[in-house]
Design goal:
Layout: H1 2-7, E1 11-16, E2 19-20, H2 34-45, E3 47-49, E4 67-68, H3 69-80, E5 90-95, H4 104-113, E6 119-121, H5 124-136, H6 140-144, H7 170-174, H8 182-194
Parallel strand pairs: 1-5, 2-4, 3-6
Helix pairs in contact: 4-8
Length: 202
């Protein structure tokens, strides 16, 4: 911002949400990120909560803001080319997936449709306690790639967030269908099998 204000240089800042693995490149998944660790934990423990989210009296649907890295790159590129409006010589934009039909709860169904057995626990606190116990019981290699180092951050259900102001308009044209869908989650599970993070479905 200082560069723009002092030198008049056009500046556009992009703030992505959660950046996920590429939609099509096989075996290229970030084994250390929270999303991969969560999927690995759910598959290896066969356990998930009934819902990852706090009840909301406003009935606001939860959403998962992650996007594959190639979609993030396309969004930024599409919003950067061409002529810039004078009023937008400095702007900050958020690039995320805000579709209400995509969240961690729907992803559990996609894990199941990939052939993995997942028991869903009604009370979140009971799930967290048993999930932690089962992660601790995994062998050393599985624990190393699991959510165990971060499991304390999942002690309470997630809030249902609202979309930040300044969401990039260019995302609209790219997300007629969410890139994070059943096919994508199955691809992530396949990547994890290729890397030995999880076994095959039953």
């Amino acid at each position: 911002k200082e560069l723009h204000e002092t030198a008049g240089v056009p500046v556009r800042i992009f703030r992505p949400g959660y950046i996920l693995a590429h939609k099509t490149y096989m075996g290229q998944i970030n084994t250390r990120d929270t999303f991969t660790r969560l999927l690995q934990g759910i598959v290896t423990t066969c356990l998930a909560p009934r819902s990852f989210y706090k009840p909301d009296s406003s009935m606001r649907a939860p959403y998962f803001d992650g996007l594959p890295v190639d979609i993030v790159a396309k969004t930024i590129a599409a919003s950067s080319v061409g002529r810039w409006d004078v009023a937008e010589l400095y702007s900050e934009r958020v690039v995320l997936n805000d579709r209400a039909d995509v969240n961690l709860d729907t992803m559990i169904g996609w894990v199941k449709s990939a052939g993995y057995r997942v028991e869903q626990v009604e009370r979140y606190s009971e799930w967290h306690d048993e999930f932690s116990n089962r992660l601790n019981a995994l062998d050393r290699s599985q624990r190393q790639h699991s959510l165990l180092p971060l499991v304390h951050a999942w002690k309470h259900p997630l809030r249902r967030g609202s979309v930040p102001a300044g969401r990039d308009r260019a995302v609209n044209g790219l997300l007629n269908e969410s890139p994070v869908n059943e096919i994508y989650v199955h691809k992530c599970l396949s990547d994890m099998r290729m890397l030995g993070l999880i076994g095959p479905p039953e």
